[in-house]
Amino acid sequence: MTVTKKDIIDRIAESTGLRRTDVRDVVHAMLEQIAANLSSGERIEFRDFGVFEVRVRAARAAQNPKTLEPVHVPQRASVRFKPGRAMRDRIEEAATRAPALVEAKPAANQTAGHKDTK
Predict the structure, then answer these.
(1) Nearest-CA neighbor of 79 among 107, 51, 116?
(2) How far apart are CA 84 and CA 6, in angstroms?
(3) Residues 78, 41 contacting (CB under 8 angstroms)
(4) Beta-bridge partner residues of 61
(5) Does the pTM of the predicted model rise above 0.85?
(6) Coil, helix or strand for 60?
(7) Strand pairing partners for 56?
(8) Domain residues of the chain, as ranges?
(9) pLDDT, tens digit, for every residue of 70-116?
(10) pLDDT of residue 97
(11) In the CATH scheme, what architecture does the domain 47-104 have?
């Protein structure tokens, strides 16, 4: 099940009794602030919830698996989220209570159709 930004805004408005438009404005402002801080290289920490930070992956040489031609992969920045203790505990508890609620995904090298060439 996917929860959208609209769903979160509706749930917060319902649980707090605030107007939906006010909640929407606050959520949009918060998300904009997070994006602005991350884009300026700042780390964002919400105690017990988690940490957002930008990680830069260096440029590298790779190989096209079809043609075996060398390919340049440029430097890339991505956002990393590391869950805090309370978040990890809550998710672990949910997985223990109802394992079907927390979808298990195969490891990267164990995806369907992957053949190990070693």
Answers:
(1) 51
(2) 25
(3) no
(4) 72
(5) no
(6) strand
(7) 77
(8) 1-42, 47-104
(9) 999 999 999 999 999 999 999 999 888 876 666 666 655 555 554 44
(10) 84
(11) Irregular (4.10)
